[in-house]
Amino acid sequence: MQDDPLPLGEPASKPRLRVLLVDDHPLFRQALAATVRQIDPQMAIAQFETLAEARRAIAADTQDTLVLLDLKLPDSHGIAGLLGLKAQAPDLMVAIVSATDDRDTVLTAQACGAAGFISKAAGVEELSAALESLFAGETWFLPPEGDGLREPLTPAQARIVEAVHRGLMNKQIAYEMGLSEATVKYHLTGIFRKLGVQTRAQLLALARD
């Protein structure tokens, strides 16, 4: 049976967003979920204490999904959690919600592919504004975009940073990604420049901090 055409002037409704809250503090997760429901009572919400749980949840479907990710989890610390999610699903929308909200952390998260950064110290009005922007598919960063934010990593560069964090050497990264070792070294040069580091050890420290 053929579907009835939509009336003129009435576009197809956008699929409802699914929000994954990844934080090991239950009270904060509940407060964040309550704010999400105030904005949209019908929003689909799932809560997780670890990065591994969240990665299993998004393994089958990343469409219309927003992950609100803490930077300090039992199985992940620092920007590594973001890098792992983006390596698994490059198009996944991930926003950081963290008490570690210094400028350098915000800039690094933006460079590594985060869709936004929300401080846990944000008031209700700021939190609601940030969530509404993210639900609309927009980004949210403070300081504002264009005010000294770092140039984002390319998908290949983000994969290389994630591989470095896993302890792989250049030769192993080249094999895994199907690149030459010289190309990996070229990408690392660009990564160092974008993230403001000079050595592989500093890059590892940045990913783990």
Summarize the structure.
It is built from 9 helices and 7 strands. The protein is of the alpha/beta class. It has a 5-stranded parallel β-sheet with strand order 2-1-3-6-7, sandwiched between helices. A two-stranded antiparallel sheet has the order 4-5.
Write the topology of this structure.
Elements: E1 18-22, H1 26-39, E2 44-48, H2 51-59, E3 65-69, E4 72-73, E5 76-77, H3 80-88, E6 93-98, H4 103-111, E7 116-119, H5 124-135, H6 155-165, H7 170-177, H8 181-195, H9 200-208
Parallel strand pairs: 1-2, 1-3, 3-6, 6-7
Antiparallel strand pairs: 4-5
Helix pairs in contact: 3-6, 6-8, 6-9, 7-8
Please describe what this structure looks like.
This is Response regulator. The chain is α/β, with parallel strands linked by helices. The chain folds into two domains: 18-135, Rossmann fold (3-Layer(aba) Sandwich), CATH 3.40.50.2300; 155-208, Arc Repressor Mutant, subunit A (Orthogonal Bundle). Helix content is 46%, strand content 14%. It has helices at 26-39, 51-59, 80-88, 103-111, 124-135, 155-165, 170-177, 181-195, 200-208; strands at residues 18-22, 44-48, 65-69, 72-73, 76-77, 93-98, 116-119. The strands form two sheets. A five-stranded parallel beta sheet has the order 2-1-3-6-7, sandwiched between helices. It is globular and about 50 Å long. The model is unreliable at 1-8 (pLDDT under 50).
Distance between the termini: 57 Å
Mean pLDDT score: 85
Q: Strand fraction band? A: 5-15%
Task: Report on the biggest sheet.
Answer: 5 strands, parallel
- Integer tally of domains: 2
Rg over CA atoms, rounded to whole Å, is 19 Å
Low-pLDDT parts are 1-8
CATH fold-level assignment of the largest domain = Rossmann fold
Structural class: alpha/beta
In one word, what is the shape? globular
Put simply, the count of helices is 9
Order of helices and strands: EHEHEEEHEHEHHHHH
Per DSSP E runs of 2 or more residues, the count of β-strands stands at 7
CATH architecture of the largest domain: 3-Layer(aba) Sandwich
Order of strands, main sheet, comes to: 2-1-3-6-7
The helicity comes to 40-55%
Q: What is the name of the CATH superfamily of the largest domain?
A: Response regulator
